[in-house]
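Reviewers asked in the last cycle whether our approach scales beyond single polypeptides. To address this, we selected a multi-component target totalling 283 residues and predicted its structure end to end. The input consisted of the following lines:
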Amino acid sequence: MKLIRYQNSPVYNQLANYTNLRDEMDRLFDVAFPTLTLLQREGILGDWRGEFPVDLYQEKNSFVVRAELPGFRKEDIQVEVADGTLTITGHQKTEAQAKDKDAQATTRETRVSRSISLPENLKLEKIEAAYENGVLTVTLPKTEEAKPKQIAIQVK
Amino acid sequence: MNNLLTRTENGADVQTASRRTVTPKYEVKEIADAFVLTALVPGVDRSSLELTVDGSKLSVLGRRAFSAPAEWTPVHREIPQADYVLALELDHRFNHEAVKAELSHGVLTLTLPKAEAVKPRRIEIKG
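The resulting structure, written as structure tokens, was:
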């Protein structure tokens, strides 16, 4: 049994601790009304929003975030930490290829973003991010205090 | 375009030992002399991607290379623990031998050239 810090809102489940409510609503609508979303989108790489999945892990020495963001270039991905929240943004503009049979001279813009609220006791200046095979991995090292320690207590 | 590429549910003999499989998101576009299939396979690297063309059957098997080490405790999970399987039936409009593939940042691009018979031809008028 572990004591968990009191969370103010009983409506939120565990998930809401980590993900943005608006993103969750978007996701819910995507699942409930898939055709609506399809209409908004222009192809799979088109204008999709708040849709990429995220995994969060606690590791002994760090907190790890993995996000599947296929089709971006490294320089199109932005990782920001502000006010205890990690925000991952992918922003990409692609020129439509003129070779296409039915190509119009349009640019296609993709913007995806997700915010994750971080646990305390992380060394925010030591964050590392890597992008490989369309997966972004952000490693946030814990401060010394946050690492698990074994304390021997003498029983009198 | 509907019958162009038929997805065969278990047509191709793709076997993944015990892992769950999902169909990747994909789209097909037509360009002048080919059809271009784009599939999203994040987490798959070149060595864990298998592409086979067997007669008219095209199959893509992509294994997610990453699995979390045992000492990592998952706090929240959304990324499915599944491999990608896409099995398609190519019809006569494709040149089956000349399929080209490219994998970049988790996006697989397959160029499926059109068969000579369906390319537009200009017919000279004599006389």
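The radius of gyration of chain A is 20 Å. We regard this as preliminary and will revisit it once experimental data from Aim 1 are available.
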